[in-house]
Structure formats: structure tokens, C-alpha cells
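Key result, reporting period 2: structure in, sequence out.
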């Protein structure tokens, strides 16, 4: 099992900060491990005060939900009560934010963390995250979830109405 090191997290943050600066944005950047625990967070000069918390929630979402936030949007729209309750679970450290700028960090097919960018528009946050992770050699492809619902098979088997469980394809 791979892990996301502090050096790798700092490399991601530096690249994201530089990319944002190049497009005239001051964004906060957060990197968490696969369990959603913070490794590093940066709020550069000029970034709004709440952006580090938003970036951390985005990174947390991408890590613990094991999909980028933009992939979760249809599921959230179809089950808003469920998503509202996720943040209330006893083990939830942060709110679940199904939005752009929330990107799962994946290397060699393994989810190793989450990246959150906050401070630009939704599209700017997403573009910065995608460009930086791609440039650093991380994977950006994730299997789609069928029907805009929870993770599971796109084509459920007969008698299998629920999401994929441990050891099943997701």
C-alpha cells in the first residue's frame, strides 16, 4: 500500500499555488491522506480567510468518498438528505462537498489521498487541480458510478439492489 508523503503533498501544494498565481488567483490548497487526515494546507497571501477550511473539506470529500467531487454531484442532487446526513456521522471529520476543486489523488491504481482547491471559480479550482495532478503523474480516471447513485456496478446483478460492498467492483 502506498502512502502520500509530506514531501509529495508539499510538491502538489507548491505546483497548485504556482499554477493559481499564473492565472491571477490566490487559492488555498489542502492535501489529505486516504483517510481524509490533513497532511498539509496552505493559504497564500491574498486568499480569502475561509478558503483553507473549504479546501480541506474538498480534499476530505475526494479521499473518503474515493471519487472527485464533481463525480458526486448527481448522486448528491438525487439524494440530498443522504448527503446532508453524511456530515453528521460520528466519524465524519468534515462536511462532504460534492463540487469542483475536490480531486481524489490516485497513483498506480491506488487511492492515496485527496486534493482540495478553493478560492477561484468552480471551474478554475477544478482546472488547477486537474492540471497539477496530471503534470505530477497522478491518475485522473475513475470508474463511473451507474445512474448517478451510490458507488456500485453500473449494471446491478439480479437480486443485487444495493451498492458494491467490500471486495466488489466499484
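The corresponding designed sequence is given below.
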Amino acid at each position: 500500500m502506498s502512502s502520500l508523503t509530506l514531501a509529495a503533498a508539499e510538491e502538489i501544494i507548491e505546483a497548485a499555488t504556482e499554477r493559481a498565481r499564473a492565472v491571477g488567483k490566490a487559492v488555498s490548497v489542502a492535501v489529505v491522506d486516504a483517510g481524509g487526515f490533513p497532511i498539509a494546507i496552505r493559504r497564500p497571501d491574498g486568499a480569502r480567510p475561509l478558503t483553507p477550511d473549504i479546501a480541506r473539506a474538498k480534499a476530505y470529500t475526494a479521499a473518503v468518498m474515493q471519487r472527485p467531487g464533481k463525480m458526486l454531484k448527481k448522486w448528491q442532487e438525487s439524494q440530498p438528505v443522504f448527503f446532508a446526513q453524511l456530515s453528521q456521522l460520528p466519524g465524519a471529520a468534515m462536511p462532504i462537498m460534492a463540487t469542483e476543486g475536490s480531486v481524489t489523488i490516485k497513483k498506480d491504481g491506488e487511492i492515496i489521498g485527496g486534493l482540495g482547491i478553493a478560492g477561484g471559480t468552480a471551474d478554475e479550482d477544478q482546472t488547477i487541480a486537474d492540471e497539477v495532478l496530471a503534470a505530477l503523474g497522478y491518475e485522473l480516471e475513475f470508474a463511473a458510478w451507474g445512474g448517478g447513485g451510490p458507488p456500485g456496478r453500473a449494471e446491478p446483478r439480479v437480486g443485487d439492489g444495493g451498492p458494491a460492498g467490500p471486495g466488489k467492483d466499484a
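The radius of gyration is 16 Å. Residues 151-170 have pLDDT under 50 and may be disordered. This case is discussed further under Risks and Mitigation.
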